[in-house]
Amino acid sequence: MLFPELRPLVLLLAVGSLLVAGIVKGTLGFGVGLVSATLLLQLFPPKSTLMVLMFPIAVSEIGLLVTTGIPWQLMHDHWLFFLCLVPGAIIGTFGLLVVPVPILYLALSGYILVFLLSQQYESHTSQVAERREFGLISGVVTGVLGGGVGAAGPPAVPYLYLQTRDSPRAVFIGGMAAALVVPQLVRLPTLVVAGRFGFQKFILGGLAALIVLVGLILGARLRPHIPNDRFERLVQGLLLLMAGQLAIDAVL
C-alpha cells in the first residue's frame, strides 16, 4: 500500500492539514503546495505524498483561472516563460523520482526559506526580475520546482508581477495560476509514463483535492473576518518551523 499507516489519528491529521492548506490559499492566496506538503511529509512517505498533492494544487489553481479567466494575451506576449515551464517540469518530475529522500527534505527546507525571504524583500526580487534573461531562467526554475515539489511561487512572482504591474490585478493572479498549473499538467503524464502514478494515487489525489476545495471555500468566506497581517505572520512562522523540522529529518 502507498500509505500503510492510515490510523484514525493520522487520517484526521491528514484531513486537517489539507483543510488548513485550503484555508490559507483562500485567505492569503498561497499555500496549497507549500503548507500541505510540509505538514503531510511528517505523516506519509515523501515522494508518494508529493505526487498525490499534484491534484489539489492543480484544482486550486484551475479554480482561480475559472474566476479570473485565462490570461491569453499575457501568455502570448511572454510565451518563452510559459514554454520553459514544460521542460522544467519534466526535469523536476524525474528529479523527484531519483533524488534521495534526505536531499529532497533539504531542498524543500531551503525552498521554504527562499520563499519566506522573497516575501520580506519583494523590492529586491523585483529589481532582479527586470534583467532580460530572468524570464527564461524563471520559467525553467518554476517548472523544475512545480514538477519536483509542486510549490513554485518565488521564481514566477517577481517576473509576472513586473509584466502585469500596469494591468488589472486579475491578470497577475491568472498568470500566476497558469504558471503553477502548467507544471502539474506536465507532471501527470510524465509520472504515468514512468509507471509511478497508478489508480490508487488518482483516488487519493481526488479526495485530497476535494478536501482542499472545501478549505479554499472556507478561507474565502473567512477572509473578511481575519486580520491578514497577523494570519500571514502566523503561517510564515509555521512554515519556518517546518523548514527546520525538514532539515532535521534530512540529517537524522
Describe the main β-sheet briefly.
none
> Mean of residue pLDDT?
87
- Count structural domains: 1
**Distance between termini?**
25 Å
Put simply, the count of helices is: 13
The gyration radius over C-alpha positions equals: 17 Å
How many β-strand stretches?
0
**SSE pattern, N- to C-terminal:** HHHHHHHHHHHHH
Structure description:
With 252 residues, this protein is mostly helical. The protein has one domain (8-251). The chain is 82% helix and 0% strand. The chain is built from 13 helices and no strands. The protein is globular.
Record the SSE blueprint.
Layout lengths: L7 H21 L3 H9 L5 H7 L1 H15 L3 H6 L1 H20 L2 H20 L1 H8 L4 H15 L4 H12 L4 H25 L5 H24 L5 H24 L1
Helix pairs in contact: 1-2, 1-12, 2-13, 4-11, 4-12, 6-9, 6-11, 7-13, 8-10, 9-10, 9-11, 10-11
Protein name: Probable membrane transporter protein
Organism: Haloarcula nitratireducens
Family: Belongs to the 4-toluene sulfonate uptake permease (TSUP) (TC 2.A.102) family.
Task: Write a concise synopsis of the structure shown.
With 252 residues, this protein is mostly helical. The protein is built from 13 helices and no strands.
Which terms would index this structure?
82% helix; 252 residues; transport
